[in-house]
Amino acid sequence: MTEPFRFRLRVRYSECDAQQVVFNARYADYVDLAMTEFMRALGRDYNALLARGLDNQVVKLTLEWKASAHFDEVIDVRVRTLKVGNTSFVLEHEMVRVADGTALCRAEVVYVMMSTEPFEKTSVPDDLRATLEEGAPGVLIDQSGG
């Protein structure tokens, strides 16, 4: 099976609590960073969407923690499309510790496609639908510095 799209990052000190464990709210930040890079890898970065009069909005974010991430660990956020509907799409983000493959957190995010003028729900364009369904298998964006 092909490796999914991966966004690699290193946990920074400022993302941790006093025990050097990643603070729970930071996982949503990791999801947002990975989605941004996933879309860029698809050739549909945020500025390209805005230039087309499109935007997307998070309407549901579910996080399921499995293990803790700690300061200075390297994490892969594996992103894949679960579903593309008429006006929305769903992405799965699986966060895994690179050193040992431990599953850390799973996120499922529902995004609604919006027009920018007027700001209202709109259909997912066919070209974006096809791109989301194809994904970016095997692409690795490494921001871990290592």
Automatic annotation (TrEMBL):
<keyword id="KW-0378">Hydrolase</keyword>
<dbReference type="Pfam" id="PF13279">
    <property type="entry name" value="4HBT_2"/>
</dbReference>
<protein>
    <submittedName>
        <fullName>Acyl-CoA thioesterase</fullName>
    </submittedName>
</protein>
<dbReference type="InterPro" id="IPR029069">
    <property type="entry name" value="HotDog_dom_sf"/>
</dbReference>
<dbReference type="InterPro" id="IPR006684">
    <property type="entry name" value="YbgC/YbaW"/>
</dbReference>
<dbReference type="InterPro" id="IPR050563">
    <property type="entry name" value="4-hydroxybenzoyl-CoA_TE"/>
</dbReference>
<comment type="similarity">
    <text>Belongs to the 4-hydroxybenzoyl-CoA thioesterase family.</text>
</comment>
